[in-house]
Amino acid sequence: MKKLTRWTAAALLLAASMTAAGARPTTLRIGLAEDPDVLDPTLGRTYVGRIVFASICDKLFDIDDKLQVVPQLALSHETAEDGLSMLIKLRPNVKFHDGEPMDAEAVKFSIERHMTMQGSFRRPELASVDKVEVVDPLTVRLVLKQPFSPLLSQLTDRAGMMVSPKAAREAGERFGTRPVCAGPYRLVERVQQDRIVVERFADYWNKDQITIDRIEYRPINDSTVRLANLRAGSLDLIERALATDVAEIRANPRLRLSTAIDLGYQGVTLNTGKSDAAKTAFGQDPRVMQAFSLAIDRVAINQVVFNGGAAPGNQWINPQHPYYQSRFPVAARDIERAKRLLREAGVRTPVTVDFMVPNNPEVRQVAEVLQAMTAEAGFDLKIRVTEFATSLQEAEQGRYQAYMLNWSGRTDPDGNLFIFHGCNQPQNYGGYCNREVDALMQEARAKSDLAARKAIYERVAERLMTEGSIVYLYHRPVIIAHTVRLEGYRPMPDGLVRVIGLKLRPN
Amino acid sequence: MLTLIGKRILQLIPTLFFVSVIIFLLQQLLPGDPALVMAGEEKDPLVIEQIRQRYRLDQPLPIQYLAWIGGVFSGDLGESMRLKEPVLRLVAQKLPVTVQLAVMAMLFTLAIGIPAGIVSAVKKNTVWDYAVNVIALWGISTPNFWLGIMMIFLFSVQLGWLPASGYVSPFEDFWGSMAATVMPAFVLGNSFAGVLMRHTRAAMLQALESDYVRTARAKGLAEERVILKHALRNALTPIITLGALEFGTLLSGAVLTEQIFSVPGFGKLIVDAVFNRDYAVVQGVVLVTATTYIVLNLLADIGYIFANPRLRS
């Protein structure tokens, strides 16, 4: 009998210790490529900030891996026949981290905050919204100034993030130091350039899908060091690993690789009308620009710089995007035709080009490959490596002929197109302006049907392929590496780390 | 003597004024419009305008300077455009980290440099001497970046002994803090250790050949006593001067090392701030570093006055 009691006690102890081990809080450590800026969805402007927002601020809508819009804080949406209003039904019983209800009033407050707060970066994204009306506690109506189909996709990003009105009113501009949203995790601590710590929010509407107790985001700029931390076990997941490290990650049995093609693009912006620097054959004669594009072997760039991991591209969206114009596939390199076009244009070769390249090892490498390739056709690219902030100012003032520019991308094709090719638009560094193309892009904004919009974009593509100011090169791979202990990670085209459904096995 | 010290302190005022003007003006020479960088991808003209107004970028330089320096006198170093946090808070958060790193690097340097230099001088032209010289040369010529990456691969990835990056405060976890800072401190102090080995060697050689050492030996003192008490004490003065000056260099030299090891100190703060044209942060950090440097120099000067009676007159 005594023996039995001893055994029972031992078994109980073992069970207790196992429960204790099971209850030990799990922490996921994520290595970021940069330190995020202010964590206020209205004032935030960095890509890396969006990675952190993914765990603390839910949005009205989200996108899935096929770029379809799916509900998050909203349950559904309905656009009026005339396209002038959007009715949004909200998910019931959702709470902010401070216990305040996430209802129609909170949505109205948040959207109006995005639209009116001083220094808001969301203002242009919501420019089509005239006002927000509360229909009932769980329904809001966005009244628009004009039909604007990209609005829905804007609500899948920071413009769709809802903040607690009470906390936002109290904190004012300091809200970003202690954001209070309705996401699965709430901010616990932030030490600039060191760590951002979030912990599970007990009242989260979808809490059954959350199994990890804490997440620690750690900014580590150097990608080699970031990977070393992952290999050493100091991190569990790293974003933006280098394409050149892919083979090493694959070969490591303790690591998993996850890749997707991003929503943005890398292209060479040509100065076609921004300043006097455009007044050369390179900036004026479409044949010279076409020759430049034809001299480039996009597949070779992908092989040389990305080990085949990127997607060669010739449009503002990647070939997997539903809006990609398959009628215009990526052209093969044709050096003879490029030379012929230059002869027809009557330019004296070599055509020298002031080529401004931001100081980034990967981009510099691509620029050198381009230099070698286009030299064969008769171009002489004078590479001018410029620090990024300086290059922005130079581009803004048109002090360049060709500028290597990366765009992080938006879900809706309009976000990759309009501000770059619309007359006098903020990102139109090339100075391109064509009223017909402008009208077509506006028309596409007013339509919500995919086929109808795609047909309009086909006409836009036709024009831009021959006279546009951007030579598209490729779409970067989103490379995420994580420990095998992490389960449930899904690669997403926006590269953001969704925390829903993630599980971390103990060591 | 007090008059002399007072004079030295008064001299600080024009120096600091001059430094503040230079910091302010040099930064204006940086190409790149801060409002444009801050405006991000959308570049809303209204937001750009709001940023310019809020941070006085639209006002003439003298007014910008007066607003900044006026704030400095009232203990307000401005606000970070990027993080929307007071610069003073950021500085207060980062300075102890960099100081800890610099102090540890200094300790490494002294612990390695001085004994090795002594051995090298005493065992002149032997294998010991050659070995120290090779190590010193290696220390001086090895780039911090390379050494840092190599150490991470060896001690973190391969052996798993030390964390590859990050920082832990010694008040939270002392040993954790030592583990996190030992590699960056070693890398930071590495090159100066080499310099110190060579200086110690030279100073010791000079001391060992001097008359008082010969006298000490003639008196029949033990060799250890001659080396440590007579020669080293005299050789130490120039070495300590060098060390005091070098401490300031270590503070500023931490920029690169902090980047490699992701140590959230002054270095990382200023690098991010420069790239983002976060003027207030750059100005604040440079001003605090310059002031620290100047004050260290002043303390060294006062130290000499105490140490050397001839300077008092």
Automatic annotation (TrEMBL), chain A:
Signal peptide: 1-23
Record bears the keyword Cell inner membrane: no
Molecular function GO labels: peptide transmembrane transporter activity
Residue intervals of the Solute-binding protein family domain: 68-423
Pfam families for this protein: SBP_bac_5
Keyword vocabulary terms for this entry: Signal
GO biological process: peptide transport
Location, primary (coarse class): periplasm
Keyword field contains DNA damage: no
Gene Ontology cellular component list: ATP-binding cassette (ABC) transporter complex; outer membrane-bounded periplasmic space
Family affiliation: Belongs to the bacterial solute-binding protein 5 family.
Protein name as it appears in the record: ABC transporter substrate-binding protein
Automatic annotation (TrEMBL), chain B:
Annotated localization: Cell membrane
Main localization category: membrane
GO molecular function: dipeptide transmembrane transporter activity
Transmembrane segments: 12-30, 97-118, 130-154, 174-196, 235-261, 281-307
Keyword Transport: yes
Family: Belongs to the binding-protein-dependent transport system permease family.
Domain ABC transmembrane type-1, chain residue ranges per copy: 95-300
Keyword set, alphabetical order: Cell membrane, Membrane, Transmembrane, Transmembrane helix, Transport
Name the UniProt record assigns to this protein: ABC transporter permease
Domain of life, per lineage: Bacteria
InterPro entries tied to this protein: BPD_transp_1_N, MetI-like, MetI-like_sf
PANTHER family for the chain: DIPEPTIDE TRANSPORT SYSTEM PERMEASE PROTEIN DPPB-RELATED
Source organism per UniProt: Phreatobacter stygius
GO CC entries: plasma membrane
SUPFAM superfamilies tied to this protein: MetI-like (SSF161098)
Bilayer topology: Multi-pass membrane protein
